[in-house]
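TASK: fixed-backbone design
INPUT:
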């Protein structure tokens, strides 16, 4: 049994905390108090009552810290680390984008595990979540990655190591960067059936491919078409998180999903004008 602290009580954090609490000692670090967790999963309802903390001063060292906050809330998550991180504690950064290793510089790189997650979940109320699919988790190969995967051995979430995490992360970013089309048109996944919208999606992904290759990812030219195809196969009314946050007038992760392509592209002398323009329009519309 591992001692695990999950920072963030949103849909992802709450779901992971509920599953891990079935077999581990879990603490959930949240902004607001909760009584318990209840998740409707593909295999039935699971319930958990982890220790819930709202004051970082009450945190104690654990074996693993799982940061599940939005990328723009890293500063808020970091205030928990002084109390949670012991000399052997490892930090798993479960966030969008390709810069997970760089978001908490106060933690040694050797104890930081970047995580890619594909887990369709929705929070319906505080502590109440619907999990649509079992989901997958990918982490880099190595001792830390294997130890992280082992935490999920008794859950339905399929966690695994990958020998090429860089490529896996950029493939996920290729999907995420195209989601801005849905946000700006205020249309769910069915927007990919529109040929004009689909071509914009392909353009966004092509820029992602060019920059990703410069960053060391192995990405096929076909990825642009595949992203559109995958989106058309999704439930036509499904909404990505950028879209959901945008229409709800919440802060968005446009920096981690689109502007990162612009920023890293500049480092390599690769322009990404479409991602830049779409991000600018989204920010101007907020």
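OUTPUT:
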């Amino acid at each position: 049994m591992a001692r695990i602290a999950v920072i963030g009580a949103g849909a992802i954090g709450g779901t992971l905390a509920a599953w891990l609490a079935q077999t581990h000692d879990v603490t959930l670090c949240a902004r607001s108090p909760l009584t318990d967790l209840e998740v409707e999963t593909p295999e039935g309802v699971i319930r958990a009552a982890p220790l819930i903390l709202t004051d970082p001063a009450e945190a104690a060292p654990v074996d693993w810290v799982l940061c599940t906050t939005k990328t723009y809330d890293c500063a808020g998550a970091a205030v928990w680390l002084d109390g949670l991180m012991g000399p052997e504690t490892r930090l798993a950064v479960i966030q969008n984008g390709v810069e997970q290793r760089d978001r908490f510089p106060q933690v040694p790189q050797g104890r930081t595990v970047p995580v890619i997650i594909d887990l369709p979940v929705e929070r319906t109320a505080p502590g109440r979540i619907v999990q649509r699919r079992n989901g997958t988790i990918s982490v880099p190969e190595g001792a830390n990655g294997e130890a992280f995967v082992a935490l999920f051995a008794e859950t339905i979430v399929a966690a695994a190591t990958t020998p090429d995490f860089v490529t896996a992360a950029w493939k996920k970013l290729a999907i995420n960067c195209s989601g801005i089309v849905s946000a700006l048109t205020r249309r769910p996944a069915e927007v990919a059936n529109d040929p004009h919208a689909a071509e914009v999606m392909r353009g966004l992904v092509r820029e992602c491919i060019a920059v990703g290759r410069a960053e060391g990812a192995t990405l096929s030219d076909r990825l642009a078409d595949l992203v559109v195809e995958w989106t058309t196969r999704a439930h036509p009314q499904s909404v990505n998180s950028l879209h959901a946050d945008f229409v709800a007038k919440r802060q968005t992760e446009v920096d981690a999903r689109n502007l990162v392509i612009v920023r890293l592209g500049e480092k390599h002398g690769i322009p990404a004008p479409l991602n830049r323009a779409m991000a600018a329009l989204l920010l101007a519309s907020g």
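COMMENT: Residues 195-214 form the longest helix (20 residues).
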